Amino acid sequence: MNLKYSWRMGFRKLKIIAVFLFMLVAGKSVFAQLSPDLVVIGNETGNNSLSKKQTLLYAKGESNFWANGKKVVVALPSQKSELAPTVATTIYKTTVNGMQKYWLSLVFQGRTDPPFFFATDEETIRFVQNNKGAIGFIHAKNKSKAADLVIEVKE
Amino acid sequence: MAQRLYSPSRLRYFKKLCIVLFFFTTCCLKAQEERKKTQINFFGHLEYDFDKLSTGSNSYFSIGEQDFFITSKLTDRISFLGENVIRYDGKSPSFFIPSIERAQLKFDYYKNHSLIVGKMHTPINHWNDVYHHGRLFFPTVDRPLAFSYLVPVHTLGIRLQGQNLGKLRFGYDIVTGNGISSTDFSDVGLNNSVMAAVHFKPIDNLRIGASYYYDYIQGNYSGVHSGHSSSIHQVALAKYKGNVNFELFSFSAAYFSDKLEFLNESCINKTGTDTLGIAVNMSSYTYLGYKINDKYTPFISYDFIDISNKDVHVGHFSRNKIILGCRYDVTHMLNVKLHVAKISPNHALISSHNHNSGPDSYEFKIQLAYGF
């Protein structure tokens, strides 16, 4: 009787652990996306897809060149853009002011080139189209306007 | 009249004009869309001081360093950074002088590896490498005391730099350039200063670094690449005119997250002469801040410096400074900081080093720092 009871308890524990692990894995895959509102676009970066880690590396100015040798040029939403808070929290884990200060400080240190700020997605798309090696962020609703520039972000 | 206005020749002229204007406007728009190659920034600060409360109070406003900052991309791999500052100088008739703080060309020769030539900030400790003149980026009002006495803040030379390498985001700087006794135009000896610095960022917002600096100071003379402000005057008063071996070991740990801010930087400095032996000097600076929200960051910091009585370069003294203050970030381009500080001779070390004792001094400062 006791043996049967302990088996049942053990099975229950296993189920709980399995559910917990599933939630952890499922949660991780959700967090792997930058944000459902955000689409990454790029021009001649040599990548149709990037990992989340790589995307952050390039967007934060920590890597200056793409694997194809093109210089990384970062295009970001300006304070006027509706997308700015999403990019600031998702990529830089800070506020819009914090994101702007992050870049001002990085440029002041002489560690990287300054990024370019745009008020609308249309401006960002146009800039990325005209600059090889550029990476930018637009709202998911405008994904179709830059279909040929979209970079998929994977785990 | 109407016939003359809309004559075929005039219409052809307007047509041509429209085509030229259309072409010109398109070209202008295109140029705007392409990346700009040069960017100009400006940094500066204004201050109110109420100090020397124990010896006769002073109350005054002052204009701090006004910093013209320019970056330009010459090619995809070569860039220029220039920083010219107008700052207070008591020896100048107008009490202000222009100063070239940085003029450097950077060549990104391979991925995140670069070669830099020109006048630059030395990569000694977090403060000098990251903030230097940028009061806007300072977490507090003032620099650590070591900045004025121990840290050679500039050099003019060549630097190999690497950054964000590997998983730990390792970085290195190897520099050789004009030493402490030199100016931006010449040096008196054959030897150059050498320094090496490493840092790594194992997690976001954390940077840990260490550095080593060596210079052979000709005639114990302090030029333009020594510590800022008082050290130059202090050294000018030094009686010893022989050569000095100068070594500086530094360590720094910085953690600046959305809530907690922490910085520690410590230095051990050895100055040696053939006849007088070796003097060991120390400094340590610790800052702790906590962001209550997006705007307010109260902070506390402790700064201490001890120059040995054997030292012939800076001269024997000891000081500690306890600071309590608050930073208010108006925007990313403007902040206001205020602090109350108690500055005192380092009583804890008086017995061991027989330091001159003096009265404690208090100060109150408000600083407005801007950059855009």
Fill in the keyword field for this structure.
heterodimer; A: 155 residues; alpha/beta; D-Maltodextrin-Binding Protein, domain 2; 2 domains; 6-stranded mixed β-sheet; B: 372 residues; mainly beta; Porin; 16-stranded antiparallel barrel; 6 helices; 16 strands; 52% strand
Biggest sheet record of chain A: 6 strands, mixed
Give the beta-strand count of chain A.
Answer: 6
The helix tally of chain B amounts to 6
Radius of gyration of chain A, rounded? 21 Å
Work out the largest interface and the residue count of each chain: A-B, 31 and 39 residues
Oligomer: heterodimer
Number of strands of chain B: 16
CATH homologous superfamily classification of the largest domain in chain B: Porin
Q: Looking across the biggest beta sheet of chain B, what order are the strands in?
A: 1-2-3-4-5-6-7-8-9-10-11-12-13-14-15-16
Instruction: Give the overall pLDDT of chain B as a whole number.
Output: 85
Based on the coordinates given, report the CATH architecture of the largest domain in chain B. Beta Barrel
Q: Percent helix among the residues of chain B?
A: 10-25%
Order of helices and strands of chain B: HHEEEEEHHEEEEHEEEEEEHE
Q: Name the CATH architecture of the largest domain in chain A.
A: 3-Layer(aba) Sandwich
Q: pLDDT below 50 for ≥5 consecutive residues: which ranges of chain A? A: 24-32
C-alpha geometry of chain B = globular
Distance between the termini of chain A: 47 Å
